[in-house]
Amino acid sequence: MTPRDQDTLITALRIQERAADVGFDWTDASGPRAKIAEELRELDRETRKGKRDTIEDEIGDLLFAVVNLARKLEIDPRAALEQANDKFTRRFEAVERLAERRGIAMRRATLDELDKLWDEVKGQSL
Fold first, then answer.
1. Cα first-last separation, the chain
2. What is the pLDDT of residue 4?
3. Model confidence pTM above 0.85
4. Of the candidates 105, 78, 64, 69, which has an alpha carbon nearest to the alpha carbon of residue 7?
């Protein structure tokens, strides 16, 4: 993650904390969870329309809502995303090694084949 990305994520968190300081906040995590569901519906709608600018806007709203959920659950969103990046990287590299051992060319494999490798690696708790 680049410093700019970290700044953007933390900026979203700080904006939400500022709003919460004056009482503009949900009482618990159910509010942000509902907002995430709403933003996903809006993203689906805009994706069907195919307009890149509105899709980007909805992705931003969704990310903002996810940061808010993390805040309500007292989770550092930056740390959570860093952990997710690390976990995905470990698993993906393990998939690459497994594919190589089995003689599977990843670029020619189907998504179903790759998903099976992923599930196998995931089952090893990597």
1. 21
2. 63
3. yes
4. 78
